Automatic annotation (TrEMBL):
Subcellular location: Endosome membrane; Golgi apparatus membrane
Major localization listed first in the record, in broad terms: membrane
The UniProt record lists the keyword Transmembrane: yes
UniProt GO cellular component terms: endosome membrane; Golgi membrane
Keyword Electron transport set for record: no
Cross-referenced InterPro entries: Vps55/LEPROT
Protein name according to UniProt: Leptin receptor gene-related protein
Segments crossing the lipid bilayer: 6-25, 32-51, 71-89, 96-120
Family per record: Belongs to the OB-RGRP/VPS55 family.
Keyword tags: Endosome, Golgi apparatus, Membrane, Transmembrane, Transmembrane helix
Membrane topology type: Multi-pass membrane protein
Length: 131
């Protein structure tokens, strides 16, 4: 039952993050949809972890070159998502208020993705592999 509560909490926090992103796009004073390209960063951020998990298999090593490289790429993707909103605001394509909402949405969504992997990577009786 604890896994179900975690799944509901992660779903709720993901909805909050996407709400921030949508507000940064659709509010009447902002009205520009350039920040929606951040969704691509949300989709590709877990891919390096999945690839390293698949390649390294069940090795018990605390650190391997493959997992370190995956962490490096994931960090680059996350930093790029935050930098994308700031670059759009500096270029004048979006307003700074929209940038703030997108940055808040980024923080919530990436913490939700991190929470997902922390909760469901343990291999308990309830894991994401069942879905």
């Amino acid at each position: 039952m604890a896994g179900m509560k975690a799944l509901v909490a992660l779903s709720f926090s993901g909805a909050i993050g996407l709400t921030f992103l949508m507000l940064g796009c659709v509010l009447e004073s902002y009205g520009v949809y350039w920040p929606m390209f951040v969704l691509l960063f949300y989709v590709i951020s877990p891919i390096p972890y999945f690839i390293s998990k698949r390649i390294s298999g069940d090795s018990d090593a605390s650190s391997s070159a493959c997992s370190e490289l995956a962490s490096f790429f994931t960090t680059g993707i996350v930093v790029s998502a935050f930098g994308f909103a700031i670059v759009l605001a500096r270029a004048g394509l979006i307003k700074w208020g929209a940038c703030g909402l997108v940055l808040a949405g980024n923080a919530v969504i990436f913490l939700t993705i991190l929470g997902f992997f922390l909760v469901f990577d343990k291999g308990d009786e309830f894991s994401w592999e069942q879905w």
